[in-house]
Amino acid sequence: MSVDAASLTTPKQSVRDLSKFALASIANMDVTALGLSTFHDPCTVEEHGFDNPAHAYIWGMGEEDDIMPALLAQKATVIFK
User: Fold this and answer.
1) Confidence of residue 59 (pLDDT cuts 50, 70, 90)
2) Hey, how many other C-beta atoms are within 10 angstroms of the C-beta on 60?
3) Using CA atoms, how far apart are residues 24 and 6, in angstroms rounded to an integer?
4) I need a labelling partner for 48 at 20 to 30 A (CA). Which of 2, 14, 55, 69 fits?
C-alpha cells in the first residue's frame, strides 16, 4: 500500500485533488502492531516522473487479503473526506 509519511509532507501536498481522494492518518506503531512493515521509499523525477520525498509503503498484505485493510481502516483517522 502506497502512503506518505506525515512528518515529511502536508495534507495538501499528499492529496492534490480533494474532489477525487480522501486522506486518513494512521500511526506507524498501529501498522507494525498488526504485523505489517513500513518502508520509506521517496519518489524521484528521474525514477518515477515526479518528486515525492514523503512516499512510503505499508508492506505485508496480499491482494486477496480482506481482513488487514479493514483492520488498518479501524485504526485510521480521517483527515479529509
Assistant:
1) very high
2) 15
3) 10
4) 69
